[in-house]
């Protein structure tokens, strides 16, 4: 009897073990479908993180660079929402609805889908395609691609969302906007959020939500697409005091010295040519040594706060990495980290509807800068340092506005981890690459409506180290925003900007030996100039670009 009972127990145990083994095998087989983590920083400068020569503490991102691929020639759009429209559609911003930012739509743009001011319905969105392919889709952070429920991320393919609809504002719970006409509207799965927790700080809260949803989704075998869209380090600059104190005195040497230090670091890393010369300090920016002690103290504190925001963001990104490792999904996750444009050198007065009364209502004393009820920005001096050696910064189609850091880690091990690759890659190629990774076909219809075919192409082989460069034609791309224009083909680039920002004529540059766009070759190479202008005119025709009177850029 005892033998029979023992035998029965053994058989039951073996059966349960077999079932558990089948379940484990199924889980293991399913887990081979890669997860996707897309992290976007808001207005982060090119050389801010350590992997790109910065002095800020960014161990999580520096570690990611060592494990994956560091793209040094990645290009985006000059401002936030146009970049994000291309990122989530694989289309030129004029095809995706952000021919201009929603804040700058003018009467002559009304009724034109490419200038809707929101992510239009002529394109398929990355989350909608991945959701249809069996992915959980999560988003936390900045949306900036539509202000109502129908154009919110929850309506465009994201399963779980907590988002700020507008372009920015306070990072605390007080919801003080960028300028008086705006509001700060948060939505949770399409529904407006009435109040925020008293201890709300944007970077931490967005990270908490992403971690919550990934954990929540582990109950099934679906992979996830998580879009962590930080509002850091967008102005107004805010950070917890302990992180600001960490950088006290770090920038007392000023922006002129920092610009040279960053440039030397970039040269040492082989990211820019050893003989690269930086674009000169703008005439509107004072030399650091010509500033008063009070001016220097305030300006240095601004950069301390900015660095604190980047430091804190990196720490939160590290939390996500640690969690993915803890649950055994880190190696099975495609991770991309990028900035949406160059560092922001504009002043708060550039925001539509801004008033002196509103700006004067904040406490921007030295001790309160970066804390609640303050409103500060990095300004053009520090922005030029962050974008060294490039010309200008956010809002302009010069390299300072459109060159951004990109880190890519594919599932498994890349062929050459820690490599720096200088191949030209454009933000339009991110969506096709992620669809390629997920095994999802490029759509010709979504939600029952036809959509435009994507213009970008996959660069997955480049990210994985199976190819040294992107596809043929990857470096042929046009630009137009706020009537500022550019076109790139290979090393050649043309730029048109009105005076005094530019010459009011097309300028021609060879980026291979002039990354700062200092030497206009239009007079020396008239045939090349005309070829490039013809290419831009074709780009204008193909993408429905309007030639309108220049507007002041945000």
Integer-rounded radius of gyration: 24 Å
State which percent range the strand residues make up: 5-15%
The largest sheet, given as strand count, sense and whether it forms a barrel, is:
11 strands, mixed
The helix content is 25-40%
Number of distinct helices: 15
Structural class: alpha/beta
Structure description:
It is a single chain. This protein is an alpha/beta fold. It has helices at residues 2-30, 59-67, 80-87, 93-96, 126-132, 202-216, 241-246, 255-268, 293-326, 356-359, 379-386, 399-402, 430-438, 460-463, 526-543; strands at 35-41, 69-75, 136-142, 160-164, 186-188, 191-192, 224-229, 333-339, 403-409, 419-421, 425-426, 445-446, 449-450, 476-481, 484-489, 492-496, 507-510. The protein has a single domain (31-466, 474-543), classed as Alkaline Phosphatase, subunit A. It is built from 15 helices and 17 strands. Strands 1, 2, 3, 4, 5, 6, 7, 8, 9, 10 and 11 form an eleven-stranded mixed beta sheet that branches. The longest helix has 34 residues, at 293-326. The radius of gyration is 24 Å and the shape is globular. The termini are far apart. Residues 1-31 have low confidence and may be disordered.
Summarize the structure.
With 554 residues, the chain is of the alpha/beta class. The chain has helices at residues 2-30, 59-67, 80-87, 93-96, 126-132, 202-216, 241-246, 255-268, 293-326, 356-359, 379-386, 399-402, 430-438, 460-463, 526-543, and strands at residues 35-41, 69-75, 136-142, 160-164, 186-188, 191-192, 224-229, 333-339, 403-409, 419-421, 425-426, 445-446, 449-450, 476-481, 484-489, 492-496, 507-510. The strands form 3 sheets. Strands 1, 2, 3, 4, 5, 6, 7, 8, 9, 10 and 11 form an 11-stranded mixed β-sheet that branches. Strands 14-15-16-17 form a 4-stranded antiparallel β-sheet, covered by helices on one side.
């Amino acid at each position: 009897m005892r033998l029979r009972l023992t035998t029965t127990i053994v058989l039951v145990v073996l059966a349960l073990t077999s079932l558990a083994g089948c379940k484990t095998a199924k889980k293991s087989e399913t887990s081979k479908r890669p997860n996707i983590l897309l992290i976007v920083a808001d207005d982060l400068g090119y050389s801010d993180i350590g992997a790109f020569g910065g002095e800020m503490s960014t161990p999580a991102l520096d570690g990611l660079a060592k494990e994956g691929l560091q793209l040094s020639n990645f290009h985006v759009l000059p401002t936030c929402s146009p970049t994000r429209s291309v990122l989530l559609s694989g289309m030129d911003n004029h095809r995706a609805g952000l021919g201009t930012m929603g804040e700058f739509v003018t009467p002559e743009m009304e009724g034109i889908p490419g200038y809707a001011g929101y992510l239009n319905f002529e394109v398929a969105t990355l989350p909608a395609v991945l959701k249809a392919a069996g992915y959980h889709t999560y988003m936390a952070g900045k949306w900036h691609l539509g202000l109502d429920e129908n154009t919110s991320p929850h309506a465009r393919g994201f399963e779980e969302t907590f988002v700020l609809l507008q372009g920015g504002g306070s990072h605390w719970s007080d919801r003080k906007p960028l300028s008086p006409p705006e509001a700060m509207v948060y939505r949770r799965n399409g529904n407006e959020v009435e109040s925020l927790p008293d201890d709300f700080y944007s970077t931490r809260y967005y990270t908490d939500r992403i971690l919550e949803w990934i954990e929540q989704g582990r109950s099934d075998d679906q992979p996830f697409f998580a879009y962590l869209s930080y509002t850091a380090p967008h102005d107004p600059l805010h950070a917890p005091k302990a992180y600001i104190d960490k950088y006290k005195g770090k920038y007392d040497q000023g922006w002129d010295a920092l610009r040279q230090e960053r440039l030397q670091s970039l040269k040492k890393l082989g990211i820019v040519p050893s003989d690269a010369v930086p674009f000169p300090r703008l005439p509107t920016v004072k030399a650091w040594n010509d500033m008063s002690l009070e001016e220097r103290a305030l300006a240095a504190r601004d950069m301390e706060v900015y660095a604190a925001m980047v430091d804190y963001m990196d720490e939160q990104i590290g939390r996500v990495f640690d969690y993915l490792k803890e649950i055994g999904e880190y190696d099975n996750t495609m991770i991309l980290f990028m900035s949406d444009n160059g560092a922001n050198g504009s002043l708060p007065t550039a925001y539509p509807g801004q008033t002196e009364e509103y700006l004067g209502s904040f406490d921007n004393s030295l001790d309160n800068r970066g804390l609640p009820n303050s409103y500060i920005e990095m300004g053009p001096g520090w922005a030029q340092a962050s974008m060294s050696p490039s010309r200008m910064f956010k809002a302009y189609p010069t390299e300072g506005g459109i060159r951004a850091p990109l880190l890519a880690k594919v599932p498994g091990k890349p062929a050459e981890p820690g490599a720096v690759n200088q191949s030209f890659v454009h933000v339009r190629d991110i969506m096709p690459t992620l669809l390629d990774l997920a095994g999802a076909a490029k759509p010709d219809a979504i939600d029952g409506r036809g959509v435009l075919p994507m213009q970008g192409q996959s660069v997955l082989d480049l990210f994985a180290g199976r190819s040294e460069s992107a596809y043929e034609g990857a470096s042929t791309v046009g630009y137009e925003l706020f009537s500022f224009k550019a076109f790139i083909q290979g090393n050649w680039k043309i730029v048109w900007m009105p005076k005094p920002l530019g010459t009011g004529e097309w300028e021609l540059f060879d980026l291979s030996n002039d990354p700062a766009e200092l030497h206009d070759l239009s007079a020396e190479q008239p045939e090349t100039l005309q070829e490039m202008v013809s290419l831009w005119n074709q780009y204008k025709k193909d993408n429905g670009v309007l030639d309108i009177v220049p507007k002041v850029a945000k």
